[in-house]
Amino acid sequence: MKAIRRFTVRPVLPDTLRPLADLARNLRWSWHEPTRALFESLATSGPGAPPGTDPVRILGSLEAPRLAALAADQDFLARLRAAAEDLDAYLHAPRWYQEQSGDLPAAVAYFSPEFGVAAALPQYSGGLGILAGDHLKAASDLGVPLIGVGLLYRHGYFRQSLGRDGWQQEQYPVLDPGELPVTLLREPDGTPARVTLALPGGRSLHAHLWTAQVGRVPLLMLDSDVEENAPGERGVTDRLYGGGSEHRLLQEMLLGIGGVRAVRTYTRLTGHPVPEVFHTNEGHAGFLGLERIRELQGDGLDFDSALETVRAGTVFTTHTPVPAGIDRFDRALVARHLGEDGALPGVDTGRVLALGDELPLGGEPGVFNMAAMGLRLAQRANGVSTLHGAVSRAMFAGLWPGFDADEVPITSITNGVHAPTWVAPEVGPLGPDASDRELWDLRRTLRERLVADVRDRLRASWRQRGAAAAELGWTDSVLDPDVLTIGFARRVPSYKRLTLMLRDKDRLRSLLLHPERPVQLVVAGKAHPADDGGKRLVQELVRFADDPRVRHRIVFLPDYGMEMARGLYPGCDVWLNNPLRPLEACGTSGMKAALNGCLNLSVLDGWWDEWFEPDFGWAIPTADGAAAADEERRDDLEAAALYELIERRVAPRFYDRGPDGVPSGWTAMVRRTLADLGPKVLADRMVREYVERLYAPAASARRALTPGRARELAAWKARVREAWPKVAVEHVEVGDGLADDVADAELGATPVVRVRVALGTLAPDDVEVQAVTGRVDADDTLTSPRTVTLKPAGGPDLEGRLPYAGTLELDRTGSFGCTVRVLPTHPLLAHPTELGLATLPEETTGAGAGVLLR
Which of 369, 364, 361 is nearest to 392 (CA)? Predict the structure, then answer.
């Protein structure tokens, strides 16, 4: 018989054990080793025991006699008091944020479609979610008053297993919130707090609000599985990234629009400071800006003034380097769900659709682009590595016409990872003065632990595939704790090239089975359930790993997740990453490995392009030119480079042992990785940068926009846009004081630039006139340009043109060029390119436009 209802029965804790409930409900235990150890000491074993360290489930499994014994155990009670006091101090003592000077935001709301905080709260699919989880944890450690906002998926992301033939299979276990470290948010009368979105046809989408406490940071998760909803609406938060287009649209409406309403409800009920800054982590949450426009219109602002107010306090982070990674919806579908009969009555649907217009990006007229909307609704935007910032500026340059990609106002803050979550406990205490022997012994210990874990997981996987216990004796000799171990684990989209290592199977076998310098590989990864191409890659890898000739040297572990990763990163000697450059926005798995003394072997992409040094690992060469355009040849060349690196450089260094059996060259690289690379890849560094470079300026900009100033700014922008077609640069002279124009000049010369500009109905205070100089290439394109602001140099001439002048400093030799442009300017603009308006001379080359230095 099957149960028709499911519910959770919680134990009644004796008074002396009550702090256990507080410790279990705060996810700080997931990165605080003493608290983890406390709960691990309570865990039972045997059939039905909760897997891993999940304090909520551990407490739920304790029987009354065990609880009574613990309540009388003075040693345990002393450990419990110490853990509770430590948590209390962590939650309430001033931290980095409270010690900063200046006007920092009272609170920041951080929206993301997924959060990877702990394996016990499976609400993530890959790097975006893990990054979001690490962002919350680092914010908590630093005392940043963040509120996380996401969805509570009742099936989470899928669990992965393998069929007998190696084909990926998916299962979606039901998650009971009563068994998760979450608490239902309630109104003062005890009823569940909820938010409601109106849907077309008189329908409604209701959601309850669950709170997960991530240290000091609350994470609000909206749950549509409530009885008041019709079946279709009840399933909106069923699966992460599941369903068709309308289902995804409803998820993103609930996350963005419902998320803002959830934040308002939470701050009303708890007294938490109201957020001054809203951070949109990828375009999925972009609708939050529209809800805030609706709120401000209710307070009396018009759409344009509300838009300026929202933009001032919004940060948008893009994580995708390719247009295919952006959510796009049919415009008619969006209009139907957000119009007068939908979730945003009173908000002009035409204006909303214009925010998602992708035509400037070379897109389609009938499509609503979530990233385009996210960028238009945010005054500050960033990519997640230096290279990704450059890629993003080029990809979205169409939204700022008239400017070179380098000037597009998208900066970059390179991702980081939360060290307490990902560093093995033994690595943390290791200081910079550790000897080679200590480093090498630690690496061996971690590798041995990984080997044991891999064997257990491999046996479990084969049993799922139908193998009998009698067939699995060979798994006892899988991997060797003394063999060079390379790890590769991530999602399996095609650009990450899971199977590049299989390009030449004979060459790979020779590496795995080398008589003196063998290599072993541990591989894991999930393909999206709808991606049959990704599943075929998994199957190809699994079939190779099933070969009895090499299965003791290469394994594929299904169901890659946080719990597996915590052992995988420390246990590997080398972390492999071979994406198609530049399609890896950041790639944080190699950061987690580095924090454990694992060396990186990677294509120069994402963060590795930024921080690679030969002391930290190896760079896999990438094909360029014609070879890069031919996919087959490109992969052949890059796979060959990978094999060559492993065979000629990586393996020899690992096996080059001194008389004491220690490879001093290898341990030197481990030491440099820990000491020099480790501090760069920390999430603490990342969150500090967000606070200083984005959150604080956004809060200041938002405070500056009183309703009156917002109306003034919106009116100014409208006036400038209307008048801009009449703005023109009509005359340019570059002289050296002796002649009106110069064809060449000496190094150190200071020629004067004189221009006349027509401003139409605009005033001089509305614009900035600039001379732009730099080296020029064969096409007269300026490279590494510099700007010089030109000053008014008199009254208008008979035709109403205004003179401007300024002096250039010619401090570089070689081919040199100069042009002039006019930009709109206003004290409340965050960036001079913000309006996407620029006027240049009709001819930017020719007499007077360039100067040649010798």
Answer: 361
Looking at residue 656, the DSSP 8-state letter turns out to be: -
Measuring CA to CA, which residue among 681, 663, 538, 534 is closest to residue 600?
681
User: C-alpha 39: how far from its chain's center?
Assistant: 31
Say if residues 189 and 94 touch (Cβ distance below 8 Å).
Answer: no
Give residue for tokens 């609708």: 287
Find, among 323, 651, 345, the residue nearest to 484 by Cα.
651
| Helix spans in 412-561 (H) | 419-422, 436-464, 505-512, 532-546
Neighbours of 799 (CB within 10 A): 8
Residue 315 CA: distances (Å) to CA of 272, 307, 401: 21, 14, 21
Q: What is the pLDDT of residues 710-746, one digit of tens each?
A: 999 999 999 999 999 999 998 888 876 544 555 667 7
Q: What is the per-residue pLDDT across 170-203, written as a single tens digit (0 to 9) for each?
A: 999 899 998 899 999 999 999 999 999 999 999 9
What the block records as the tokens of 468 is 């009998």
Judge if the upstream peptide bond of residue 105 is cis by omega within 30 degrees of 0. Answer: no
Q: How many helices (H) and strands (E) does the chain have?
A: 29, 28
Tell me if 273 sits within 8 A of 145, measured CB to CB.
yes
Four-CA torsion 595, 600, 606, 607, nearest 10 degrees: 40
* pLDDT tens, position by position, 627-679: 777 889 999 999 999 999 999 999 999 999 999 999 999 999 999 999 999 99
pLDDT at 53 over 90: no
CB 450 within 8 A of CB 522: yes
Please give the structure tokens belonging to residue 277. 């800054």
DSSP 820-847: EEEEE--TT-SSTTTT---B--S--SST
